[in-house]
């Protein structure tokens, strides 16, 4: 049992002190002149301290840092972006570059900055702006539990080992989720291009991206199934969104769930109406899979293309078909633009795309099979995501207990 003392109303192990952060870590401010590897918020993974290789946008002089310095995300501090530098470089303006003093073990300090209680205090000091920013005057004055450097080293060694084990489990589970998503996509692709009857005779569709399809399926142009429409808006209806992964929403998204790049117009008469059975797509993101079947009456952006069925079939079947990888490649071929971010799929080109379609009753059986199998896979994904969440909670709790002296790790380290 570790002997405890009370300092400023806080129980700490004997020998530990409460020290303002600025006495442990010195904030660097010298602007870079020599250049070097640029590190920004997007280069740091939240809550783990791991580096992510990305192309950082840099538009000014950064602050030089060296190996062993710590970068802390002062912009939106709730993201918990903390990185112990492995090499020298430049930190852009959304990061503080902090240098551990001689009495501080850098790895211990990095864990201390990742401690959820510390992050909460820093975040609580920011304003309610969309891009909250921490102030060093406040953060530097926060008193942090500081043990002797030998204990810091023991804690860092213990946490390196324990968080490494947890991170290894998280990585395995993350790979498992990726495999499940690949399986989900493969199930849908096979069902909407080959059917669910393994004994069905096959034929050459005559369309490269479709390949061989069941002999009794029709191969049709989009123009034989849909016509482009432009319906007036009913302001009383919800504004629906089209997602690359989830198709068309069944209701209006809350502001916090909406893509940060998309804002609702206050004038709902600017939108266009959609009805159940319509196919909606985002011209600029069609090549990424931004198609969806409409299930409820609503409104969509005037920038979207709305196509209404001209015969009887299940639009959801076409949605699944258009979400396949081979369809995405074909849609890219039909799109026009000089670069990916400018690619647009116009109706006059899309209407010429060829698709395959089974009889109506078979469409229903296939959709039912897809729903059942994807529900099973999604259930496994949800369980795995929850287990990852619990592991991350365990990781955070372990860091808190170690850096605040709630557990004695010297023997374990």
User: Going by CATH, what is the homologous superfamily of the largest domain?
Assistant: DNA methylase specificity domains
Number of domains: 3
Number of helical regions? 9
For the largest beta-sheet, the strand count, sense and barrel status come to: 4 strands, antiparallel
Characteristic key phrases:
single chain; 413 residues; alpha+beta; Adenine-n6-DNA-methyltransferase TaqI, Chain A, domain 2; 4-stranded antiparallel sheet; 9 helices; 33% helix; elongated
Architecture overview:
- The protein has 413 residues and is α+β, with helices and mostly antiparallel strands.
- The protein has three domains: 17-146, DNA methylase specificity domains (Adenine-n6-DNA-methyltransferase TaqI, Chain A, domain 2, Alpha-Beta Complex), CATH 3.90.220; 148-189 and 361-413; 196-357, Adenine-n6-DNA-methyltransferase TaqI, Chain A, domain 2 (Alpha-Beta Complex), CATH 3.90.220.20.
- It has nine helices and 23 strands.
- A hairpin with an 8-residue loop joins strand 19 and strand 20 (291-293).
- Helix 2 packs across helix 9 and helix 5 packs across helix 6 (315-322).
- The chain starts with a strand and ends in a 10-residue tail after the last helix.
């Amino acid at each position: 049992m570790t002997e405890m003392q009370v300092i400023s109303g806080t129980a700490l192990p004997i020998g530990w002190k409460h020290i303002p952060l600025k006495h442990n870590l010195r904030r660097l401010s010298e602007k870079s002149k020599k250049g070097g590897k640029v590190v920004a918020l997007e280069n740091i993974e939240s809550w783990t301290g791991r580096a992510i290789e990305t192309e950082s946008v840099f538009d000014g002089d950064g602050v030089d840092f060296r190996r062993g310095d710590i970068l802390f995300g002062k912009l939106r501090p709730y993201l918990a972006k903390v990185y112990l530098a492995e090499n020298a470089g430049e930190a852009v303006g959304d990061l503080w570059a902090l240098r551990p003093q001689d009495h501080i073990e850098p790895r211990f300090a990095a864990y201390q900055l990742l401690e959820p209680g510390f992050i909460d205090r820093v975040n609580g000091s920011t304003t309610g702006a969309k891009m909250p920013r921490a102030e060093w005057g406040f953060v530097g004055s926060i008193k942090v539990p500081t043990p002797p450097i030998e204990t810091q080293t023991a804690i860092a060694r213990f946490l390196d080992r324990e968080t490494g084990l947890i991170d290894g489990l998280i990585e395995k589970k993350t790979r498992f989720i990726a495999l499940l998503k690949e399986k989900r996509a493969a199930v849908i692709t096979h069902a909407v291009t080959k059917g669910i009857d393994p004994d069905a005779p096959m034929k050459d569709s005559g369309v490269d991206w479709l390949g061989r399809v069941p002999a009794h399926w029709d191969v049709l142009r989009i123009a034989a199934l849909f016509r482009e429409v432009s319906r007036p808006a009913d302001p009383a209806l919800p504004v629906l969104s089209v997602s690359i992964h989830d198709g068309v929403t069944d209701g209006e998204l809350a502001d916090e769930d909406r893509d940060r790049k998309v804002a609702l117009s206050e004038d709902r008469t600017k939108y266009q109406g959609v009805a159940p059975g319509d196919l909606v797509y985002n011209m600029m993101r069609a090549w990424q899979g931004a198609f969806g079947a409409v299930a409820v009456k609503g409104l969509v952006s005037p920038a979207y293309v709305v196509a209404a069925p001209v015969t009887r079939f299940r639009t959801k079947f076409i949605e699944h078909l258009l979400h396949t990888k081979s369809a995405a490649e074909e849609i890219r071929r039909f799109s026009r633009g000089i670069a990916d971010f400018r690619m647009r799929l116009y109706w006059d080109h899309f209407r010429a795309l060829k698709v395959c379609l089974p009889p109506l009753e078979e469409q229903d059986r296939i959709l039912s099979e897809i729903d059942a199998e994807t529900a099973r896979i999604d259930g496994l994904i949800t369980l795995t995501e929850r287990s990852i969440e619990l592991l991350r909670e365990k990781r955070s709790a372990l860091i808190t207990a170690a850096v605040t002296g709630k557990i004695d790790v010297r023997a374990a380290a």
